[in-house]
Amino acid sequence: MKAVGFYRSLPIEHEESLIDLEIEKPTPTGRDLLVQVKAVSVNPTDVKARVARKQAEETPQILGRDVAGIVAEVGSECSLFRPGDEVYYAGSNVRPGGNSEFHLVDERIVGHKPESLDFARAAALPLTSLTSMEGLFERLGISRNPAVNQGKTILIIGAAGGVGSIATQLADLVGLTVIGTASRPETIQWAREHGATHTISHTQAFVPQLKVLGFPTVDYIFCLSDPERHWDSIVEAIVPQGKICSILPLNPSAKLDTLFYKSATLSWELMYTRPMFQTPDMIEQHNLLEDLTQLVDAGKVKTTLTELLEPINAANLRKAHAKIESGQTIGKIVLANF
Ligand SMILES: NC(=O)c1ccc[n+]([C@@H]2O[C@H](COP(=O)([O-])OP(=O)(O)OC[C@H]3O[C@@H](n4cnc5c(N)ncnc54)[C@H](OP(=O)(O)O)[C@@H]3O)[C@@H](O)[C@H]2O)c1
């Protein structure tokens, strides 16, 4: 089958940084589905994984974490899906990625694709939505009931990126006042169109800007970019007893004492944790994607696709990686059709 992969880390301008390959088609066992891949979206994690692979490998590495496609075959223990089902999922970081014609994935982290979206528009959603849903509703413990959230505020740092474009929509949907950070006119506009009531810039200290808006502190902070650079602003902006969630690691030297005096909670969100450790509740990712499908088909959450490249091949994947490396993408870049 066709695939796109690489043997060692090379600058993205290099023709061999990502190459077209022929590899063996896998066979599903146990709870695995074999999915015919129709579209993939590209994430910063793909770039990080490509850049990290300094040693040349004997077998090619296949990246790609966001897939929309059709179930081709099911393993003997599968009970959630049948051949022919249209699905979408983010997958696992400890298994081969989805940049291949067929792909194996554990059915417990797969959802039925929204009927209202084509494969490309669906592929934009799973990874960023799982991160947002786990971050907002599980780590920050935000209620899904808008009545409970009346008068509460959330600051979303990096509001126009892949994760931010979904997190702002969901936070708005559950009744929070959403303040998003964005640094350019086009990202400010995108964040406002996707649920941010207010925007401030992440190139300046947050609290003076928040005070101008009438919010000297916020109840929740969801940090989707550069937590170390924003740390002083984060601890200053969080309300006493407030909650912070970061989707990126934080240098251990970060000062935590101010959070102690504020009795503030700091939590982490990594959407790979469940598949990586095969946690007993890993099926929650299936449930979250099924919830998302209902929200999308009800018109409450919209796709975040901003750029579509066809077909899925090395040249187009190199273009997508180069854009992600710029750190300035809005929404999601998707590749469709082999
Ligand atoms: N833990 C997890 O499970 C998880 C899941 C997904 C992603 N991640 C990680 O989270 C990060 C964000 O992912 P993503 O897909 O949203 O990225 P992305 O789409 O590449 O984010 C691009 C956005 O980041 C904003 N940005 C750039 N520099 C910033 C800064 N210093 N502070 C705040 N915002 C900044 C830009 O806004 P402007 O153009 O307005 O500056 C741009 O709109 C990545 O590092 C990714 O690897 C973690």
UniProtKB/TrEMBL annotation:
Question: Which keywords fit this entry according to its UniProt record?
Answer: Metal-binding, NADP, Oxidoreductase, Zinc
What GO molecular function terms would the record report?
A: oxidoreductase activity; zinc ion binding
Q: Where is the Enoyl reductase (ER) domain?
A: 16-335
Looking up Gene3D superfamilies in the UniProt record yields: Medium-chain alcohol dehydrogenases, catalytic domain, NAD(P)-binding Rossmann-like Domain
Quote the InterPro entries the UniProt record gives: ADH-like_N, ADH_Zn_typ-1, ER, GroES-like_sf, NAD(P)-bd_dom_sf, Zinc-ADH_QOR/CCCR
Keyword hit for Metal-binding: yes
UniProt record similarity statement: Belongs to the zinc-containing alcohol dehydrogenase family. Quinone oxidoreductase subfamily.
Which NCBIfam families does the protein's record reference? adh_fam_1
Name the UniProt record assigns to this protein: Zinc-type alcohol dehydrogenase-like protein
